Amino acid sequence: MRKYIVFGAILALASPVHAQNTLPANIADDLYITLAEIRANSLDIFLFFSGPDGGPISKQEFVTTNLPDGVVEKQLERPLLERLFGLLDANSNGELSLLEWKSGIDRDLKFADQNNDGRITLKELSTARENMNFGDAIEMIF
């Protein structure tokens, strides 16, 4: 199964909903983030890794970058970044270009935005998560 990477704002909405705490339908359908917002945030994340020159990002730069506190446990940070770099480096040249980054984001957004309306609702996110295996979910670190 292809690995999917879904970033911060989506992850913030992605807390498991337990049966006894089911959200009303209007909240599940009306709570959303737009694809434009996600793309803008993802560009900020790319620039965080690449610095002011805008990339490309070497594997060394990517995996040795210190993430903000609370994103992931410090001992898991480097292995997770190495794995994420491997998923994003589509041509396996050891560098991550902005084009590769954007392609990965677009692929993931297409997977999550099931009705192609330009936004991802909590309901769509829940469905997307159900279609991912545990390993895919672990890779959602932003």
Explained architecture:
The protein has 142 residues and is mainly alpha-helical. It has one domain (8-13, 23-138): Recoverin, domain 1 (Orthogonal Bundle). It contains 8 helices and 4 strands; from the N terminus they run H-H-E-H-E-H-H-E-H-E-H-H. The protein has helices spanning 8-13, 25-30, 35-50, 59-64, 74-88, 98-112, 122-130, 134-138, and strands at residues 32-34, 57-58, 95-96, 119-121. The chain has a two-stranded antiparallel sheet. Helix 3 (35-50) packs antiparallel against helix 6 (98-112). It starts with 7 loop residues before the first helix and ends with a helix. Residues 1-20 have low confidence and may be disordered.
What percent of the residues sit in helical stretches (DSSP H or I)? 40-55%
First-last Cα distance: 21 Å
- Rg computed from alpha carbons, rounded to a whole number of angstroms: 16 Å
Uncertain runs are: 1-20
How many strands, what sense, and barrel or not for the largest sheet? 2 strands, antiparallel
Q: How many DSSP-defined strands?
A: 4
Q: Write the H/E string, N to C.
A: HHEHEHHEHEHH
- Class in CATH? Mainly Alpha
Strand order of the largest sheet: 1-4
CATH-derived topology: Recoverin, domain 1
Number of helical segments?
8
Shape: globular
Number of domains: 1
Instruction: Write out the CATH superfamily name.
Output: EF-hand
| CATH architectural type | Orthogonal Bundle
**Structural class of the helices, strands and pairings?**
mainly alpha
For the residues shown, what is the average pLDDT?
74
User: What portion of the residues fall into strands of 2 or more residues?
Assistant: 5-15%
